[in-house]
Design a protein that fits this description.
The complex is a heterodimer of chains A (193) and B (715).
Chain A lengths: L8 H6 L17 H23 L5 H24 L3 H9 L2 H17 L15 E2 L6 H10 L15 H14 L13 E2 L2
Antiparallel strand pairs in A: 1-2
Helix pairs in contact in A: 4-7, 5-7, 6-7
Chain B lengths: L9 E4 L3 H30 L12 H33 L6 H21 L15 H23 L8 H20 L2 E5 L2 E4 L3 H19 L2 H15 L6 H15 L14 H13 L1 H14 L4 H6 L1 H24 L1 H7 L3 H30 L7 H34 L1 E2 L4 E2 L4 H6 L2 H30 L10 E4 L10 H5 L3 H25 L15 H12 L14 H7 L34 H9 L1 H4 L21 H10 L6 H5 L1 H18 L10 H11 L2 H10 L1
Antiparallel strand pairs in B: 1-6, 2-3, 4-5
Helix pairs in contact in B: 1-2, 1-3, 1-14, 1-17, 2-3, 2-7, 2-14, 3-4, 4-5, 5-6, 5-7, 5-8, 5-19, 6-19, 7-10, 7-14, 8-10, 8-19, 9-12, 10-12, 12-14, 12-15, 14-15, 14-17, 15-17, 20-27, 22-27, 26-27
The chains are: A mainly alpha (193), B mainly alpha (715).
């Protein structure tokens, strides 16, 4: 380690007289790009802090609320469009093969509570003649799917599913009523004939 | 060379290398264990069946075991071995006290064994990297003091006037870890293995991440930078690149690092100003971190040909490169808008492992290949095996990082995508964003297997090396002149290097400034967060459920913190506020969403849904990767201890009435009966009395409901 011949002339000039267990130290100047990195990150960080801490820069919550307000406008407009049961669209969805699509949507989203065949588990049995919220018509089922019944654990599917998906699943639920599959959950709600 | 002060008579001494050897054995063995646990939990994420329906083997309990084993068992022992080996040589002095060295070793192993038993049993604080319960916390404090006395005693006995840069980093490590551990672990015991922290909610979150981030800084970074400063120049046989860079990057690093903790809490309910400090100091930290990388890599300048051929040098060079990469990635991810995407995703997991595997495992492997042959006075058994180990680790790590980048960014983008024409989430089903990235979990597990396999090669290689060492391992007698007191005429920083006590005091001050400015307001000011009168303490049954939630480590996969980001509000409900968590001891905001946020899960599903879900999550959520929790349906909740729990919480300011405390168990049973009755009406067997699942359901149904009710009424 102390073999001074292995160092260039330049290195010898900056080799310090430090020796720790044979470890020596050069004293190269700080690389310019490193110093600049330090300066630039500080030039970014310090004014940033001053702006947000002392000069009234908006909080993250305020920024989020502004953005949310814009999204809510879009959602409200869409909700108005969705609220009314669209008979034309329903007929169109049926014509385009709602039977298979509806089942697909049902298995993916509804079966976790109503089971694959609609026999009910966490949620009520959909194959009997008893109804808690809807009345065995496409219009009333549509409303329950769209708005959910959150107090009973039924999610607001209007926030997750498209209009066509909801219409297709309504068609599927209509097809389940009064099929009275085996092992169904005991009836809940009122009987609708 | 620096002999101007060493003019005393020659003294004889020897190094205590037998203690170093003990720590080396522990490093190798715990390293293999920690990596094996990593592979196990990686497989559990790829396929839930690897949880085996076993209580003590589920991800929520093994993940803390993996992190504790990696950080405290593997890196801890490696740090102690390296520090004890190098400090003796840098000080030309034997370790201060042989008994303390052994006490340190056996005490630390006892702590590790206690962790290895208690964590799978579910004894946990529920605070990341600080999960160990209070008796073990006290053990850690005692052993750390033993370490400190032994280290500073050695400095005191030194025969070298000035302390080398490696020692500066060791000093910073010892004092800062002590401060972090003690402040973050202040807790009131309930029983032998259960306690509540004195800090609550947002304050607990701030202190935890001040601790957690600086555990990375002062347990995984500064000691290993110190080791780098010793072992790289020794192994490469070249002088350190720049002394003045050492000074500047050391002081800037210790001063700035301590401020960066709140970058773990961006967009959360932590007060905005603390978040801003955390982000900005993280960005400014980039250059100080890279100062260490430059000094490491440029020390190797002029010897690159040897780096290409010697596996040990490959490990050192690669570890420093990964250190540079992850200390660039860190500041990047600390920028608010980047963090909005990265936080809670696997990107963070990838980042952590590019640090821990890339920097710590690689560096320690290099050091082991250097130190083991040297200390056992023999040659390495096989360079070829070491070379295979190097490539296996490197390829494994690259697979790890790439898969986690892909998984994290994919999931982060799916979470935030909003349909512009409807204003609705494109991927409203959380599980969709999980099943999408499962292939990446397999890639990560495979990468982990390569890293583990490489380390097993190291284990074989080093034990073969030790096996062929000469049986007689006598301590070599060395001679050096005694140190003359007050002999240095050096000024400035060089003078300071001759005064370790002053140096230590200045280091403590450097870390206390940022700590005090960020933390003290939360302790001193009652206006630190806005209060909300609607928020009330947990009922006794909910509290029992919460402690089950903590025991099962639910927080390692579920957050309870809806960030101030529009897509989170759409998915989970109104952004969380600090006021909602004032009774949360410990806070359970989480840091990773392997499952969805559950800050407002209360009332979202009925009791039966939770009942089914905990029994088998896939019954209600197809594609879920959550483990089953069958034991919650068999074991009874400990409701008898609730009075004591409530009393302890009251002593910390939670407004329980004396009547509530006295009748806690009764109140819990009454509330449980209501839940059981509703479940029974849905067809669940009625023998659920006092079962743990009932308490857990009570807790889950409470989450986020305090302010939800009011908001609905306002509308």
């Amino acid at each position: 380690m102390n073999d001074s011949n292995k160092f260039s002339e330049e290195e010898k000039k900056i080799l310090l007289d430090h020796d720790y267990d044979g470890i020596q130290e050069f004293d190269y100047p700080l690389p310019n790009w490193w110093t600049m990195t330090f300066v630039l990150t500080s030039l970014f960080g310090i004014p940033y802090m001053i702006y947000y801490l002392f000069l009234g820069g908006p909080t993250l919550r305020q920024e989020s609320e502004l953005e949310l307000a814009k999204i809510k406008t879009v959602r409200t407009a869409y909700a108005v469009k969705m609220a009314k049961f669209d008979h034309q669209a329903y007929d169109k969805v049926i014509a385009e093969g709602a039977a298979s699509k509806g089942k697909e949507v049902f298995i993916e989203n509804c079966a976790s509570c109503h089971k694959d065949g609609g026999e009910g588990d966490v949620g009520p049995n959909l194959t009997d003649a008893y109804w808690m919220h809807a009345k065995a018509t496409p219009e009333t089922i549509y409303e329950v799917v769209l708005n959910g019944r959150e107090d009973k654990g039924m999610p607001v599917w209007g926030e997750d599913l498209t209009k066509d998906e909801i219409l297709a699943v309504v068609f599927h639920v209509m097809s389940l009523t009064n099929t009275n599959v085996a092992n169904g959950k005991e009836p809940q709600g009122k009987k609708v004939d | 060379m620096s002999t101007d002060q060493n003019t005393g008579a020659l003294e004889e001494f020897s190094y205590d290398d037998s203690s170093v050897k003990l720590f080396l054995h522990a490093t190798i063995i715990w390293g293999a264990v920690a990596l094996l646990l990593g592979v196990v939990i990686a497989l559990q994420l790829a396929s839930w069946q690897f949880n085996f329906n076993l209580e003590w083997f589920t991800f929520g309990r093994l993940r803390p075991l993996h992190t504790n084993a990696a950080v405290f068992a593997f890196c801890g022992n490696a740090m102690f071995a390296g520090i004890y080996y190098s400090t003796q040589r840098l000080c030309k002095a034997r370790l201060y006290n042989d008994f303390l060295s052994r006490l340190h070793f056996w005490g630390w192993q006892l702590i590790i064994v206690a962790a290895a038993i208690s964590l799978p049993l579910g004894y946990s604080h529920g605070k990341e990297y600080a999960e160990l319960e209070w008796p073990i916390d006290i053990g850690i404090t005692i052993i750390w003091v033993v370490f400190a006395v032994n280290f500073f005693g050695t400095l005191y006995k030194r025969r070298e006037k000035h302390i080398y840069v490696a020692l500066w980093f060791y000093i910073a490590t010892i004092v800062t870890v002590a401060v972090l551990h003690i402040v973050n672990s202040i807790e009131i015991p309930i029983s032998l293995m259960k306690s509540y922290p004195v800090w609550a909610g947002a304050q607990d979150a701030l202190i935890q991440w001040w601790y957690g981030h600086n555990a990375v800084a002062f347990f995984l970074t500064t000691p290993f930078l110190g080791l780098m400063y010793y072992f790289v120049p020794k192994a490469i046989n070249r002088p350190v690149y720049s002394y003045r860079l050492s000074i500047i990057h050391f002081w800037s690093l210790v001063f700035i690092y301590i401020w960066a903790g709140p970058h773990h809490l961006l967009y959360t309910a932590l007060p905005d100003w603390a978040q801003t400090l955390g982000m900005c100091f993280s960005v400014i930290l980039w250059a100080p971190s890279w100062g260490g990388m430059i000094n490491g890599l440029l020390t190797m300048r002029g010897a690159w040909d040897r780096v290409r051929s010697e596996p040990l040098l490959k490990f050192l060079a690669t570890s420093i490169t990964f250190y540079g990469m992850s200390t660039f990635e860190g500041p990047l991810m600390a920028i608010k808008s980047v963090n909005a995407l990265a936080h809670y995703t696997d990107w963070v997991v990838g980042h952590v492992h590019s640090g821990t595997i890339g920097w710590n495992v690689m560096l320690v492997s290099g050091i082991l290949y250097y130190i083991v042959p040297k200390i056992w006075k023999t040659e390495l058994f096989s360079q070829k095996l070491a070379n295979i180990h190097f490539w296996s680790t490197t390829i494994g790590l690259v697979l790890y990082i790439l898969s986690m980048w892909t998984a994290g960014i994919t999931q982060g983008l799916m979470w935030r995508e909003i349909n512009p024409s409807t204003g609705m989430l494109t991927y409203p089903n959380f599980v969709e964003t999980v099943t999408k990235i499962i292939p990446m979990y397999w890639v990560r597990a495979f990468g982990g297997v390569l890293v583990l396999g490489g380390f097993i090669l190291l284990l074989i290689n080093l034990y073969k090396t030790i096996a062929r060492a000469p049986k007689e391992q006598k301590e070599e007698i060395l001679r050096a002149p005694a140190l003359e007191k007050n002999s240095s005429k050096a000024k400035g920083h060089r003078g300071l290097e001759g005064l370790p006590a002053v140096f230590t005091v200045l280091t403590v001050l450097a870390v206390l400034v940022g700590s005090a400015i960020e933390i003290l307001p939360s302790i001193l000011s009652n206006k630190w967060i806005e209060k909300d009168a609607r928020v009330t303490p947990y009922t006794p049954l909910e509290l029992a459920g919460r402690d089950i939630y903590i025991r099962e480590g639910c927080y390692v996969c579920h957050s309870q913190m809806i960030r101030t980001l529009p897509h989170e509000v759409l998915r989970y409900g109104p952004s969380s506020t600090a006021a909602e968590f004032v009774y949360d001891r410990p806070f359970q905001w989480g840091s990773k969403r392997t499952g969805p946020d559950i800050a407002r899960v209360g009332g979202k599903y009925n009791h039966l849904w939770h009942y089914r879900h905990m029994m088998d999550p896939r019954v209600v959520t197809q594609g879920s990767i959550m483990p089953n929790y069958p034991w919650l349906f068999k074991k009874k909740a400990d409701l008898g201890i609730l009075s004591k729990k409530l009393a302890v919480l009251k002593s910390m300011g939670v407004p329980y009435s004396d009547e509530e405390i006295e009748k806690a168990t009764e109140l819990a049973k009454t509330q449980a009966d209501v839940i059981i009755k509703e479940l029974a009406s849905d067809g669940v067997p009625t023998n659920m009395k006092n079962k743990q699942i009932i308490a857990l359901i009570a807790y889950l149904q409470r989450l986020g409901t305090d302010i939800q009710q009011e908001i609905e009424e306002e509308e």
